[in-house]
Amino acid sequence: MAAPSKSLRPALDAIGKAIDQRFDRLLTVPEDTRAPLFKAMRHAAIGGGKRMRPLLVVASCDLFDVPRERALRVALAIECIHVYSLIHDDLPCMDDDDMRRGKPTVHKAFDEATAVLAGDSLHDFAYDLLSHEDTHLDPFVRIDLIRALTAASGAMGMAGGQMMDLVAEHTAYDLGGVTRLQQLKTGALIGFCLEAGAIMGDVPEAERTPLRGYARDLGLAFQIADDLLDVEGSEEKAGKALRKDEDAGKATFVSLLGIERARTQARMLIDQAIEHLAHFDHRADLLRAIARFAVERDR
Amino acid sequence: MAAPSKSLRPALDAIGKAIDQRFDRLLTVPEDTRAPLFKAMRHAAIGGGKRMRPLLVVASCDLFDVPRERALRVALAIECIHVYSLIHDDLPCMDDDDMRRGKPTVHKAFDEATAVLAGDSLHDFAYDLLSHEDTHLDPFVRIDLIRALTAASGAMGMAGGQMMDLVAEHTAYDLGGVTRLQQLKTGALIGFCLEAGAIMGDVPEAERTPLRGYARDLGLAFQIADDLLDVEGSEEKAGKALRKDEDAGKATFVSLLGIERARTQARMLIDQAIEHLAHFDHRADLLRAIARFAVERDR
Questions:
Q1: ipTM of the assembly?
Q2: Do the bridges between strand A103-104 and strand B103-104 make them parallel or antiparallel, or are there none, so unpaired?
Q3: What is the enclosing helix (H) or strand (E) of B73?
Q4: Cβ burial B161-180 (10 Å sphere, 16+ → b, else e)
């Protein structure tokens, strides 16, 4: 039996704490003029966010009995990439956001230049974490993780999706276009979270299909839910500004499908995501719960 | 006998061509709305710059008979990091430069958001290049390269040096402070260029000392020469705005030492750099020529 989504709260609290503790230990502030850089990295990386991506990494690693401490290193790496992308995304020249995760954005709490460098530094730190033998003794595994991450986060993945999003104000994307944009912008990194478990667990390529299907459907459902939250949610709960896509005239799943069809589509994708996990036993309960949570988040 | 520095021109031309050809082949522009991102990456990466870092990588790899095509992949990776750092450095919130390598900076030729993403994408591409088996069959070698690069380019290296530089306008750095700043901001990446040859050539740690000494002395001499060019050079030849440090009231080797002592210091460092290579035969001639070139560049 799948766990009900309300049971996700303890798992989210636990991963949040685990990630915060490790960032706190790893990102020590030097006593020289580099201090603002490290403070800015800590401001962005510690305390905040749902830590959905780290939880996905841990849940995926649990399927293959990967030791928890190693899984957490991969989780930290993916969170570094996510956080760096948020810092750069929030810059005045990008989305120009003042609030993120209920706190001032890095360029507001520090300044723009420090924000650029803090993002760049977390970007490197992700690869540093993955390259270390504490992540896995087998260098082939570490190389596989790094290659998968460059594909997910670079121009062929997340950054490419962000470029598509930049021109969205002047581009009439249809449903296929928005789907492609989101598959790159958020889906690629979510895909990496699931792939990471398979890489760490040394799962043969052919057996990774269910996880990839789960990641693809979850990623889209997650984005549709985000679009719905953007229209229906409260800025206070979200910890960031909402309704910016609508104001900018960007096509979203909700603007193209309408609220009801978007909601139906998200639920259908979640059912499909969970079906991909059919041949996994109770060890996939956390992934099932994450999927349900993705479309039932607080408004 | 060491080659005279005038003989460096063919080597510089050859490496420039080799790098341009490979970037041209690797950075193909997709026929969709991601196109501006790839065009911006090409704008920054192809055609321009002295390609000093790629040449150092190749020269260092030549010492240990590393196949040229593999050495060039490492050279491309380090150039990706250098170029990404220039793109972000040139942003209005950082140095606010309009010209770079004789062309409009990326945010001028495109826009700021595209520049941020192009830098981020080249950053990932560096790690992508190093992680591929075309760079080296042994995954331990690839992991070593990646770890050395994260150390050289992240918060403990280049980005940390850039942070020190950001606060330089409000910090009275003495000679030790400026030296430390430059060792991180430009020295760390130059250090990686030399280390890369030793890693690719599987040279034991204990035997890397001469290369590290060469890199340290060359890096400082190179920076002093840059400071001299900044005071004495022509903007046309440099392909970028000059005398910005002076205007901002930042301490430099020249402002702290004066022109004559700075020039003497640079020459002494170059002599010292070349001495480190004493037990290498003619295969180190290229490294010797690069060292001489570093302090004899066109004004």
A1: 0.96
A2: unpaired
A3: helix B68-90
A4: bbbbbbbbeeeebeeebbbb
Mutation target for A interface from B34, B84, B111, B167: give the one with most A CBs within 10 A: B34
Tell me: the pLDDT tens digits for B188-220?
Answer: 999 999 999 999 999 999 999 999 999 999 999
Instruction: Report the gap between the CA of B80 and the closest CA in chain A (Å).
Output: 13
pLDDT of residue B4: 43
* Residue found under tokens 């390259």: A131
**A140 Cβ under 8 Å from any chain B Cβ:** yes
**CA atoms within 13 A of residue A133's CA, in its CB half-sphere:** 5
pLDDT of residue A246: 82
Rounded Cα–Cα distance for residues A245 and A251 (Å): 8
Strand partners for A103 = A100
Query: What is the total count of domains within chain A?
Result: 1
Residue A1's pLDDT is: 35
Average the pLDDT over A170-194 and give the result: 97
pTM metric for this prediction: 0.96
Q: Hey, are the CB atoms on B155 and A91 less than 8 Å from each other?
A: no
A47: left (phi over 0), alpha (psi -120 to 50) or beta: left
> What's residue B123's pLDDT?
98
Q: What is the mean pLDDT of residues A181-200?
A: 98
Chain A interface includes B179 (CB < 8 A): no
Residue of chain B with shortest Cα separation from A185: B34
- CATH code: domain of residue A90: 1.10.600.10
Instruction: Give the structural domain span for B176.
Output: 5-295
User: Contact A159/B91, CB-based, under 8 Å?
Assistant: no
Burial of A241 (0-12, 13-18, 19+ CB in 10 A): middle
B132 CB within 8 Å of a chain A CB: yes
DSSP string of B203-254? --GGGGHHHHHHHHHHHHHHHHHHHHHHHHS-HHHHTS---HHHHHT---HH
Q: According to the model, what pLDDT value does residue B220 have?
A: 97
